[in-house]
User: Which sequence fits this backbone?
DNA sequence: TCAAAAGTGTTATCCTTACACCCATGT
DNA sequence: ACATGGGTGTAAGGATAACACTTTTGA
């Protein structure tokens, strides 16, 4: 039917932003209310597109230029309505990347490492302790608590796919969070009454931690085939710094030699000519991103060379 | 700020669906108004989630069970508002897959091959004539029409990335449509006054052809790493039929032997034991999709083995 | 007997992973 | 001198793309 025929009824629309920056080689997100909320606000109907509305609004709130922007997902679950006095809300969430490489000692208030919310996602120092000590045992208990053998088998398989060490896939951030939610192991799963003894990992209000998980998952998948890491880097950088950045996002260590080879084989960067004599050891060549690559190829990203354990 | 503090203002929300079925080995989408519109309607606020709302509404409209469903994108461009008497509209679009393998001679009214809208996307019979005869020459003229050399170079590079025969990437459906739109070669680009001598390929009202392009692009990308083709197949099928289905979606021919190998190496299907004696030639074994695979592996799709030209 | 589609086996090539090693600087 | 990170070369393994060929049916 043509849209003019049955006119949609009014519903409130809000925007949410997962705003990411690399600060001190740590992936950080901009939060409010002591880390319990993502920045969010009403969609102003007077912008030509959603993107420009989002952009204007974020830049007004944060005073930072916003680099890459991408839509994440639109939620309209009834649970949100309940939490906000009954009015139905459609919330459109965005991922935004910004350059905010502050090396100052104290973090700016509002920026939080995303691993505070998902400690089991950080494999840069090997298997995270919280995973083997807490997550896995609790999941196993959840499996055993299933009513019938079929349900138990299904739960076990889902755990294996998403959490097995041997086949860990860093892109499954959202699926893992949703599984933990379903298993009742995160505080947000409780609704009114609190969850008894929840897992480590800071909760957020409403469904904001789910939105954050969506953003992280999307970004982790994206860096593999599009050169978005560079939106988070300073203009000049060493290959070592670039590797640290990718490792921070992907949450796992990379194989140094192969990482370097992949980067320059793909022609993603070019030498500036200068060198940086910073952290101990031999001075490193400085590179910059070759923006032309965006016009040269349809796909080009920082493939992730594996690295066994640490 | 907490959502409760600055309450969003009401805006109309509508749903759009790109509903895909394989009919006579042709990828078809459900349309209204003689193919000029995608099915769309208001978002009913009384469903627990957007997905269930969409599902209920599509099944009511089409009387077909809806298989796989996935959100595509949320648009809220002002251009839409103008087209619908000034009220701001947020439109949330979905991709839906349904099983509708009608081998009847005449097509059901409402189902249209998606290549009617994007004839340059069908490479199953080699390079499409419309591409070399019409699209490329017109794009070249558009390049030459650029004001300065820099703009010309930029246009040329975008054409090369998206349309070059040698490096044709079937996933770039949306980018290609947007480039043609920008170049003023499709009727929708005109606004009030009609575009002079537009390219072949049926236009749609509003931004529905863009939404369709988004859906096709998403589906083409998805079949490579998730086994969604099977949502479009009958319960039992031959490997030949499966290949035809994938070719129809991807819009290009595949290498037979390698396709077969990939499918069973991945354990996506199992023999039913029966054979089908249909189209001339040796009878083919029948297979069915192994649903268990969804629980066994995080990624599993029908990789696309290339095939040089025809 | 031949066309047409099903189905099997093998090879060349490229990309990923891994390992071994040298280089340049500060302490 | 040695610790630290930068930087290079090369070999093993696996996956993809391509080729050649056999099998089983209907006309």
Assistant:
């Amino acid at each position: 039917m043509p849209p003019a025929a049955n006119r949609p009824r009014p519903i409130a629309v809000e925007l949410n932003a997962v705003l990411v920056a690399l600060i001190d080689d740590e992936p950080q997100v901009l939060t409010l209310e002591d880390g319990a909320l993502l920045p969010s606000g009403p969609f102003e109907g007077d912008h030509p597109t959603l993107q420009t509305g989002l952009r204007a609004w974020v830049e007004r709130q944060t005073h930072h230029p916003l680099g890459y922007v991408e839509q994440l997902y639109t939620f309209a679950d009834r649970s949100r309505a309940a939490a906000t006095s009954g009015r139905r809300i459609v919330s459109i969430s965005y991922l935004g990347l910004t350059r905010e490489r502050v090396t100052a000692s104290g973090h700016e208030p509002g920026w939080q490492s995303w691993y505070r919310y998902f400690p089991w996602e950080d494999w840069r120092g090997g298997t995270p302790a919280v995973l083997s000590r807490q997550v896995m045992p609790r999941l196993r208990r959840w499996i055993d608590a299933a009513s019938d053998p079929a349900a138990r088998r299904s739960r076990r398989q889902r755990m294996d796919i998403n959490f097995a060490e041997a086949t860990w896939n860093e892109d499954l951030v959202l699926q893992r969070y949703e599984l933990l939610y379903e298993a009742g192991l995160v505080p947000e799963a409780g609704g009114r009454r609190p969850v008894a003894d929840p897992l480590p990992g800071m909760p957020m209000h409403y469904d904001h931690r789910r939105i954050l998980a969506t953003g992280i998952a999307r970004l982790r998948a994206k860096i593999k085939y599009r050169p978005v890491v560079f939106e988070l880097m300073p203009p000049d950088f060493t290959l070592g710094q670039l590797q640290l950045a990718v490792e921070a996002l992907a949450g796992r260590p990379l194989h140094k030699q192969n990482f370097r080879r992949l980067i320059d084989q793909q022609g993603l960067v070019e030498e500036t000519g200068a060198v940086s004599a910073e952290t101990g050891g031999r001075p490193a060549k400085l590179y910059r991103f070759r923006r032309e690559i965006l016009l040269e190829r349809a796909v080009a990203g920082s493939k992730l060379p594996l690295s066994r354990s640490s």
Remarks:
- Chain A touches chain B through 57 residues (CB under 8 Å).
